[in-house]
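ok here's Precorrin-6A/cobalt-precorrin-6A reductase, seq below lol
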Amino acid sequence: MEKTRILILGGTSEARRLAAALATREDLDILLSLAGRTEAHAQQPVPVRIGGFGGAEGLANFLREGGYHLLIDATHPFAERISANAATAAERTGTRALAIVRPEWVPEAGDHWHIVADIPAAIVALGPAPRRVFLTTGRQGAHHAEVAPQHFYLVRSVDPVDPPLALADVEYILDRGPFTLESEIDLLRQHRIDAVITKNSGGTAAYAKIEAARLLGIKVVVIARAPIAALTSVETVEAALEAIDHLVSPAMKRGV
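and the structure came out like this:
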């Protein structure tokens, strides 16, 4: 019996959980694609490839040459380029495709949110007066803080910011979620943070900083998700597993 070949575009906890759930199935041949070095350090439950594809056409060629039946986009909500490439490649090759898209965070009573379009706008939203800022957008894009050197920045990322920021008052934390509410409260108090900058990533792993800011009355500058060319999507790994069962059924593979 021919196995169903599935390419998972990963880099998130959802991708790893999905791969683990599918790894034991004898009717499936799974490949997990990771964009960079960070994810490669963690042990993965299925075979892995590292690196990009060379745009939408490169991904389309990879799907064709590999004979893949199904493409799963389980990348980060802010990986707009690869998600757009995935949608284009699926359309060009006629490959069935599915995306896992975490629900966005929404403000609750007690939140002090300022929603912006991108990191430069978030820095501007801090205002001219010196502030103590918890910058949690990751290492990519952190350099935008250099235009506002009057602030103190506490920068948290998984990988080091390289080169370091050209700022006089900055500290770095290398850490990966999930984070607890108690630890986030302690961190914000310890560094006397009065503003948080975050992407609206959704999910639970990084939500504790939102809760902590709410409880401490701290302003949160939230970078909104950009609209992208979307595949058919689900919000959870469990829903993705149900959809995959339907998509890889013999009738669906025959195009019935």
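fwiw The first strand starts at residue 4 and ends at 9. kinda neat tbh
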